[in-house]
What we know:
By secondary structure, the protein is mainly α. It has two domains: 156 residues, no CATH class; 57 residues. It has ten helices and two strands. The longest helix has 48 residues. One zinc ion binds next to loops.
Amino acid sequence: MVDYQRQLLDELMGRNRNLDPGAKIKEKTWKDGDNCKFYMHSFCPHDLFVNTRADLGPCAKIHDDETKKQYQEAQRCSRKIDIENEFIRFISNMINEVDRKIVKGKQRLDLMNSKLDQRPISKQAEAVLNISDKISKLVREAEEAGIRGDVDQAQNLMGLCEKLKEDKETLIKQYESCGFNFSETQEKQMEVCETCGAFLIVGDAQSRIDDHLMGKQHIGYTRLRKALEEYKKKQEKEFEERRSGRSSSSGRRSERSRDDRSRHSSSHKDDHRHKRDDRREKDRHRRDRRSRSRDRHRRRSRS
Length: 303
Ligand SMILES: [Zn+2]
Ligand SMILES: [Zn+2]
């Protein structure tokens, strides 16, 4: 029977629908092999990418909320730990795969962009691009003035912007009246989504950006990444708890040598942690920078 038909019947009539009325009903438990482990643990990746390019096809196991509840309430045991590990392995593989796709996508774009950069740019196009850059710079300054509360300055700058926009329009019209097609010289700049690997147009319309962010593929990978991040945080917390628990429970024997040892090892671990924090900080900066530059592009396309 087709999976979804079976699932529908299960939902309507229960999973024991085919048993004789007198037969003893076997209680279902989370340990039954036909349950989807990933669904019980948190979610099934097969549900995330339906009808997208990343579609994994239907899940062959049962998604049942009752057994899921049982599993969630069950004591931590080796079987549960195995399931969690399996889940994390599965989603890590999926994330690694999309990360490789992201790297490849960026390489492709770099290659494309380097070809574009080598292309001679006409004087006219350069003049228009210069004005666009000036406009973006003024808009930024006006925003900063607004944030400072300097309303006069902000208004002055916006006035200048309006003037420059008029100049830009006039220039474009002049060039176009000489048979010069400005839009052709403006290649659409692309970027790769850091979450799902899709190609995006820099400075695209907000509605299309929203469509992407609300799309199954982007949401699916966001969910996978979040689950992995949460798992790592939990691991770190457990590690810290174990570490502090160990150091407080050990005796006061040979106090000095133990102290020396732990000082050494903890400074070593701190070192690691600092490095990790450093890396995280860098990643964050990179992300911020990227989103700033995205905003800039967006603004530029509007100005
Ligand atoms: Zn499943
Ligand atoms: Zn995306």
